[in-house]
Amino acid sequence: MVEEKKRILILGGGFAGVGCMRTLESYFMHDNDIEIVLVSEDNFLLFTPMLPQVASGMIETRHIVIPIRTLCKKTKFYEAQIKNIDPYGKVVTLTGTNERRGISIHYDFLVLALGSQTNFFGIEKMEERAYSMKTLNDAVVLRNRVIDMLEQAENENNPILKKSLLTFVIVGAGFAGIETAGELNDFVRDAKKYYPHIKKEDIRVIVLEAVSFILPGFNEKLASFTLEKLMQHGIEVKLNKKLSSFSGSEVIIEDVSELNKNSTNQPVIGSILTRTLIWTAGVTPVDIIKKSVFKTNRGGIVVNEFLETPDFPEVFALGDCCYLVNPQTSKPYPPTAQSAEAGAKTVAYNLQAVIKNKQKKKFEFSSRGQMAIIGKRSAIATIFGLHLHGYIAWWIWRTVYLSKIPKLDKRVRIFLDWTIDLFFDRDISRLKIFTREVPMEFKELDEVDDVW
Ligand SMILES: Cc1cc2nc3c(=O)[nH]c(=O)nc-3n(C[C@H](O)[C@H](O)[C@H](O)COP(=O)(O)OP(=O)(O)OC[C@H]3O[C@@H](n4cnc5c(N)ncnc54)[C@H](O)[C@@H]3O)c2cc1C
Questions:
Q1: Measured from the CA of 40, which atom of ligand 1 is nearest?
Q2: Long-range contacts of 238-241 (CB under 8 A, 24+ apart)
């Protein structure tokens, strides 16, 4: 029996936060003693697996985002930046409006689902100079950049400069890197027909990977199949190559193959002339988590098997922003949407268990499979122990991910985008209304304006 009104505050509107909100609503829909509040800086849920297809113009920008308000049945939603989390006072401070008004929200239970950000590993000026593939803005900015490079290269007489404009370097051969490379390669090569002075051999799409394999975590045979296919599609994959620096026009790479590492000689250094470097080499939990009072490991909030923070039992953390070692693999759970969704169910269950004085359950997650698209209507997939590749895997990828979009209208729009793409060329108009995201600076308020 619930004795008094309780507020559950969820921070973050990604797979973890929205998933948790929806499960909590199913538990407490008609319970007036439970309030659910969700705060996120964007008012939509971003369906990241389709982000590279937005960058390549296959899917229209708005079709892979779902407004959070359309998913809320009971939850109160705030579109705002989180400024401070105080687990001692059980209060979270937000800044969301142009007037920089601070709002503080008290909570009884807190769910931290703030996700991750691109990890540039402290490489000098990388954040400023490289493009990333993490947010919707990133995808749109990259698409504009690629079209801009085609436009500039078309009328460029200097052959070296022309080649550098048409060289696209992707750093990291994980999920995001390989999918981005496949999509970008298809887009540039298809768009070429509108640029009569650009030859096929002028275009280079290069993937740099510091280790000796691609797609870590995938079946080895599928990874080899992918490597072969990427090369057939004209993508250069350079393994054991670590990026040292990027000046904005030249990438310096170091050969880190075992042979070279053991050698007493100077490392072999190479260079690639390019104006566009796309960084997909890793993620790290968001800064606000790293700066918080919660105990962290590798940037993620340390949680126990119930996804609770040990020092604050009313605070739960999940998804990309938490750190928990999988006892089966002795490795931390991977930062994937699948794992975030599983965590959402566990946290919602445990919250209602705590509120109703029931037994909590442990977080258990084993991947249901993995899939990646690799360009030219080809994909790889591991589902229920089966390893598939080629067209059939591509078809499964589309069917599975389409079914995961939580709103029917978005599903229909994406399906139509894919159908149109079968018959028509991609749009090469460059919309100049988007700029690189500049971090917003918020004025520290002397006192909280409003306590809600
Ligand atoms: C290109 C790409 C492709 C991917 N493909 C796959 C795939 O095929 N399969 C798969 O399983 N995983 C995939 N992933 C990984 C997957 O997207 C993440 O693991 C997943 O999004 C994690 O969910 P999350 O809710 O923890 O974090 P997120 O989805 O990152 O959500 C965090 C939320 O918190 C909000 N937030 C952060 N900081 C603040 C703040 N200070 N104030 C307010 N709000 C804030 C963000 O705006 C966001 O809404 C892919 C990722 C990328 C980038």
A1: 44
A2: 238/206, 238/207, 238/208, 238/209, 239/173, 239/209, 239/211, 239/212, 239/213, 239/214, 240/209, 240/210, 240/211, 240/212, 241/208, 241/209, 241/210, 241/270
Span from the CA of 155 to the centroid of ligand 1 (angstroms): 39
Helix (H) and strand (E) counts in the chain: 12, 30
Within this chain, do residues 178 and 261 fall inside the same structural domain, yes or no?
yes
pLDDT on residue 290: 84
Residues with Cβ within 6 A of ligand 1? 12-17, 40-42, 48-49, 51-52, 81-82, 113-116, 133-134, 175-176, 286, 288, 319-321, 335-338, 340
pLDDT at 204 over 50: yes
CA of 143 to the centre of ligand 1 (A): 20
Q: What is the CATH number of the domain that holds 172?
A: 3.50.50.100
Its domain, for residue 226, covers: 126-281
Q: Domain boundary at 281, 316, 345, which?
A: 281
Please say if the pLDDT value at position 3 is more than 70.
no
* 274 in the same domain as 207: yes
> Residue 34 pLDDT more than 70?
yes
Going by alpha carbons, the residue nearest to atom 20 of ligand 1 is 337
Name the phi and psi angles at 129, rounded to 5.
Answer: -95, -25
Distances (CA, A) of 361 to 248, 313, 348: 50, 14, 10
